[in-house]
Amino acid sequence: MLMCGANIFTGFCDSLGQTYAPRWYVGTPWIEAALVALLFMLAVLLSVKYLSPHRALRHTRRRMMAAVYEILLYRGSPRKVVAAELKLIVGNLVLLILMTPSLAVAGLLFAAMYGTLAARYGYAPAEIGQDLVVRCQGRPGDDGPVADRRILADEDAGIEATAYVVADGDGTTWSRLKPHRPGVFGLRLGDEAAERVWLNVASPSRPAMPVHRVGILDVTIGYPPGSWWGKPWGWVVYFSFVCLVLAVPLARMLKVTL
Questions:
Q1: Band of the pLDDT at 22, cuts 50, 70, 90?
Q2: In terms of residue numbers, what domain contains 100?
């Protein structure tokens, strides 16, 4: 349900980008990312509530608390302190095993959302009139013509390829493009290729490309970093912080014991 809502929401926002409008957010990127973190934590805590063996979790926590009291009570006995610390380690491992279904749900949700969130929050739209680097990764040891791995634009398409550099040994090329207007542009992989790599200037996203072409492994568009402290991964730090802040009040509201 969370992924359906996220896909509908991001699809609606990205559809605005297809009309060459500036990317649209709920308030600001900071507010929207906080709302996504709220939905994510709700899904994770609901999985903890309904998938975790709560009786076994309570028993394990009690044994761990008893081990903590043993450490405080027998501070003068190193042997008993070490034994209590081993009980704590074992208790933590047992907790991880018992929480495996909930942790799996959280991991799968984040993995499914990561590509969309990274494109949406990690990068900013390309700037009109500024160079944009596109990396075309070839197969190692590929001896095919370099021209087949260049990123080219059609004439009068509103974007031009100004230069390209070849990486020796791994068949990779870097092409420098300059968009002259916002839009979605079809770029050719090579001089005579009919295939297209679709580049959306107004909305950073992973390029939709046919990877059936022999010798081409991947195409990466070097969008500028977003507004998260100038780092493409800055949104992950903010997203994680918001999740931690929301965890305790949401757990109390849903009556989930963490």
A1: very low
A2: 2-123+232-254
